[in-house]
Amino acid sequence: MDYSDLAKKSLEARFLSYSPYSDFKVGAALLTESGEIFLGANVENAAYSPCICAERSAFICALMKGHKNFKAIAVSSMVDDYTSPCGVCRQFMREFSADLPIILVKSSGTFIETSLDVLLPMSFGPDDLAKERNE
């Protein structure tokens, strides 16, 4: 699959960032199964812990519109290097897919494809909660 458009959308989303403390702007573009793209950007807070990352921001936008099935997510920042999702975002994404394609985008537009099963091996997800328990 060609993720060029998704990568470009993540680059655009960076400019929606509210990051007055770190000035590290991150954008995300989430592709749903129906073909819609939802943008997300990081939002910082002076207390730091209430901050939200771009990836979760995009997921929340899509979820609020009723989407629960996703095809891929692209993530970019203002640096010309690949910005990988943090651990919290990886676990958040795992709720919806064990092997979601993740497109890491440099500020120059160059991108690579990886997946959630590579970035979060041996993960814990909803299917684990359904397993038979031995007591």
From TrEMBL:
Signal peptide: none annotated. It comes from Smittium culicis. Its EC number is 3.5.4.5. One of its GO terms (biological process) is pyrimidine-containing compound metabolic process. GO terms for molecular function: cytidine deaminase activity; zinc ion binding. It comes from the Eukaryota. The keyword Zinc applies. This enzyme scavenges exogenous and endogenous cytidine and 2'-deoxycytidine for UMP synthesis. It is an enzyme of class 3 (hydrolase). Residues 1-127 form the CMP/dCMP-type deaminase domain. Its cofactor is Zn(2+). Keywords: Hydrolase, Metal-binding, Zinc. This is Cytidine deaminase. Substrate binds at N42, V43, E44, N45, A46, A47, Y48. GO terms for cellular component: cytosol. InterPro entries: CMP_dCMP_dom (IPR002125), Cyt/Deoxycyt_deaminase (IPR050202), Cyt_deam_tetra (IPR006262), Cytidine_deaminase-like (IPR016193). Belongs to the cytidine and deoxycytidylate deaminase family. Zn(2+) binds at C53, C86, C89. The active site is at E55. It catalyses: 2'-deoxycytidine + H2O + H(+) = 2'-deoxyuridine + NH4(+); cytidine + H2O + H(+) = uridine + NH4(+). PANTHER family: CYTIDINE DEAMINASE.
